[in-house]
Design brief:
It is found in: Membrane. With 456 residues, the protein is α+β, with helices and mostly antiparallel strands. It has helices at 6-55, 157-207, 223-270, 274-298, 313-325, 328-331, 349-366, 395-400, 418-428, and strands at residues 56-57, 64-65, 81-86, 93-95, 117-122, 128-139, 145-155, 311-312, 334-339, 344-345, 370-378, 381-388, 432-437, 443-450.
Length: 456
């Protein structure tokens, strides 16, 4: 797909939207999962905090528990979960065996007495830990109260590992989902643009002359475009037809007047006015060549270089050679036709006949004894070479060759527009035209035209 492809643009937009959306969804879902895990951990620590408060014997100066906490990890050194009770007044601290010889640093932390306060601490192993703390006032048997600071903390490593594993699994799943969505987007874009491809094929068929209008069932959204193309095609065909008819009518009228002028020139010659007769005949000949040239051009049509239509070059050459061989001049020559089998040209049959007729007929006029026509296919082009063993041309004559109305030898018959029309045909069909000296001694005309698919 090219960089300016509409399909590529749509697929890239879809892919970008899918990637950004799924990435945002992954970030949000990971944050929600982490928040959920943290909330569960905080609730669990709050339950342990409440149990710790229920087990404290505040009357004991050492602040002891009436019985052990239910979670056995509290009794394992560095077990990952810790409790601590501190008397802010005396600095007395009681803690779980899991803290070993360390304490939980809560000094200076704002801890509420009304409800549990969530804290982020460093556990005895130096790792991050979540904690729940509260300041409670315990009634003493002797009367009065004793405020104590209670803390329950848990290593956050397990939570972080759970979040990391969830993030990895989720993004793997999102990656697979992204691939599926991109494939679905590609399918959607391909199916959505399929009518445009059908329209393009239809337009190519019209330009190739294989169809007159777009036919088929098209979606409602592109039906107005199809109607506009058909209307434009019809209008163009009518315009071309009217232009050709007007050109033919104009040529018919002008040639009639030219015949009258030639008759007048003949009368002048009979009266002895040779100069005036030649001047009039020169003008009428120039006008006739111009008319023939324009009529020839009006029969040509610009074609798309990507059309599927093709004409077999060998068959076209054989037809022209057979026709010329029946003429008196053609029968005198030795003909050599060397066209590789299945050599097509992306050119209409009438245009190819016009091109071959002009070139081979020109070689027939200049050849002494031999004409050779060869052709082959090479890298998307078909090459045609027409050679004769005539006198050949100089570099200056080659430059002038093919200019409209120019004849290099006025003693030879012809209007001088044949090679000019050949140039027009080659240019309209994306080909190349060149002239050089032939190995036979005369002129070599080399034509390269786009090669279409082999004819069926």
């Amino acid at each position: 797909m090219r960089s300016h492809s509409l399909r590529l643009r749509l697929i890239l937009i879809w892919a970008l939207a899918i990637v950004l959306s799924l990435t945002a969804a992954g970030v949000v879902l990971t944050a929600l999962f982490a928040q959920h895990i943290e909330s569960v951990a905080i609730r669990r620590l709050t339950v342990d905090l409440n149990r710790l408060a229920a087990l404290i014997d505040a009357d004991d100066p050492a602040i002891r528990l009436t019985q052990s906490m239910s979670d056995p990890r509290f009794e394992i050194p560095y077990g990952g979960i810790y409790w601590q009770v501190r008397d802010p007044a005396s600095g007395q601290v009681s803690r779980s065996r899991s803290t070993w010889d360390q304490t939980l640093d809560t000094v200076g932390r704002p801890i509420s007495a009304n409800e549990p306060t969530e804290l982020r601490l460093t556990d005895p192993e130096g790792a991050k830990a979540m904690a729940v703390a509260r300041v409670l006032s315990f009634e003493l048997a002797s009367g009065g109260t004793r405020p104590l600071e209670l803390v329950v903390a848990e290593d956050a490593e397990a939570t972080d590992l759970a979040v990391a594993a969830y993030r990895l699994d989720m993004f793997r799943a999102l990656l697979v989902l992204a691939g599926i969505l991109v494939l679905a987007a590609w399918t959607q874009v391909t199916l959505g643009l399929a009518p445009l491809k059908a329209i393009r094929r239809g337009v190519s068929a019209i330009r190739a002359g294989n169809a007159q209008r777009l036919e088929g069932a098209f979606p409602t959204e592109v039906q107005p475009l199809v109607a506009e193309v058909n209307d434009l095609t019809q209008a163009q065909e009518l315009a071309i037809q009217f232009a050709r008819e007007r050109a033919a009518d104009l040529a018919h009228g002008l040639k009639g007047n030219l015949q009258v002028l030639n008759a007048e020139a003949h009368e002048l010659r009979l009266k002895g006015d040779e100069a005036a007769a030649q001047a009039i005949e020169g003008l009428t000949q120039e006008m006739a060549r111009t008319i023939d040239h324009q009529l020839g051009l009006s029969r040509l049509r610009r074609r798309s270089p990507h059309r599927a239509a093709a004409t077999d070059l060998g068959e076209g050459v054989e037809r022209i050679v057979r026709t010329l061989h029946k003429t008196a001049r053609g029968a005198e020559l030795d003909w050599a036709v060397e066209i590789a089998p299945g050599t097509p040209v992306s050119l209409d049959g009438p245009d190819l006949a016009e091109l071959l007729g002009a070139l081979i007929e020109n070689a027939t006029k200049w050849a002494k004894t031999r004409v050779r026509v060869s052709g082959l296919r090479e890298e998307g082009f078909s090459r045609l070479c027409i050679e004769d063993d005539g006198p050949g041309l100089s570099d200056a004559q080659v430059e002038r060759l093919g200019q409209r109305g120019v004849r290099l030898d006025e003693t030879r018959s012809g209007s001088g527009i044949g090679l000019s029309i050949v140039r027009e045909i080659v240019a309209l069909n994306g080909g190349e035209l060149g002239f050089s000296r032939s190995t036979l001694g005369g002129l070599c005309v080399l034509v390269r035209l786009p090669a279409g698919p082999p004819p069926l």
